[in-house]
């Protein structure tokens, strides 16, 4: 037993040495890394901010936490650096928020309910990277079904990446999706960004690219003025609420601050979906949605009666039903893959992220591996279970 432990420690030390040597090699070759001394990158690695990853022979580092002026999700090797997608401030009141952050001209793009990936060509393969810098096996597997001209795009725009939302009822990560996607998933391209700098194409140029390469994309409205077009934007939010859509992202024509705003519908749905899984989410998740709803109603008084009626039902109906079943709290997901190796890579990703899954069905049908699986949430199960068993807590 002692000999095995010593061999494991020796292997770990050897791997650590090789990773440090690779980091030094990347720093020497990649000009973007030299903005900071090698010692600072090494310190980020030692503190767990910078992690080493691989995907089918492609080795890279990703930032698990913000480092200097590089956001979480930034990834790089010796040849490239892709900045993490920047966080966008959320405004709570349209009337004051628009004029505080924006000036003419700006655009309003539909905010799609899904998960964010960045598509990039590396060597001969197009890979999808998640918000946190992981390679997403699912989005890597399926992009060809929805963005067939993507290889041509990368021939023309070799120094750029494609930012998009993967959304639909058959995705492996989120249990909400836009109403216009009835089955499977779709890809919604919302930005084109430059490698290294992360600079986005201006909106008008982006629209031309979307049309040229037939990229599916969110609705884009504008240009707008923050005060003169307030009622038009308010009407958009009203329509999106009634249609069950998430909200809007406001973007200046070129550089500048971006902001986002979500509909009352989105806040109500978040509460319904997440409340049963308290213990798995941040404690302030619920209170933030309630604050958003209160300020939604401050600006959209016409929705008061509807929200007063639905709020209690959305919060309590689902959790009461699940608790009465007396089982572990879980969610069922459906996905389809073109390649089984990518499905296996997804399972490995779940294991790395410590997500407990159980495969319920798995069969090939019409050229796709159709999978139904459930995610089991032990912390949420314990959160409610302790209370049902009579345990108390100091609050």
Automatic annotation (TrEMBL):
Provenance organism:
Caldimicrobium thiodismutans
Q: Where is the RNA ligase Pab1020 C-terminal domain?
A: 273-391
Q: Which residues form the RNA ligase domain?
A: 105-262
Keywords, comma-separated and alphabetical? Ligase
Short name of one Pfam family:
Lig_C
The answer to whether keyword Ubl conjugation applies is no
GO terms, molecular function: ligase activity
Q: Does the keyword Ligase apply?
A: yes
Q: What is this protein called?
A: RNA ligase
